[in-house]
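Chapter review: from sequence to fold.
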Amino acid sequence: MNQPTAAPQNAAPPGQTLAIARQPILDAKRAVFGYELFDRSAVGSSFSAASDAALIFNLLCAADSEIQSSRKPLFINCTHQTLAGGHLELIDPERVVLEIPALTIDQDSAEDIDAFQQTLAAVHKRGFRLAFDHRVLAPAYASWLALASFIKIDISCFTQAQLFGLTRQLDKSSRAQLI
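The token string follows.
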């Protein structure tokens, strides 16, 4: 997989460097299917709804011409709080795929998963496509899986036999596209 490349930007606030990186997402034929965008200005645990909003704003204002002119989907990682923010009104849901992290599964997570499903359903109803990683195939996430447009699998984390099993499971349980 290619390493993320920095997209030159010039809309950073004074005194702050803005670094938006993009990583190509490849299809089965190794053709670029879309781009995953990362805010490299934020570090570690400083990702928040505010940093997600800043990424989206800067993408709209200062993305390089390749990203602007391409009709390939843009995958943007979102915090759970981002999905309730009004800044999603600024972007075209046809162009953007919201990549949603799984919750940590523990004894209290079933309620959290079910409660958050309502937020996901509302965003999906507004026209946004949702992407999840392979953890959404766990039974606890059945309500999320129904909303998935994409399931991302990092093939370096699985054996060929495991990948075969995951694809069979996905074929039986979802219409989501495997990427």
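Two observations follow directly from the output. Residues 109-125 form the longest helix (17 residues). The radius of gyration is 17 Å.
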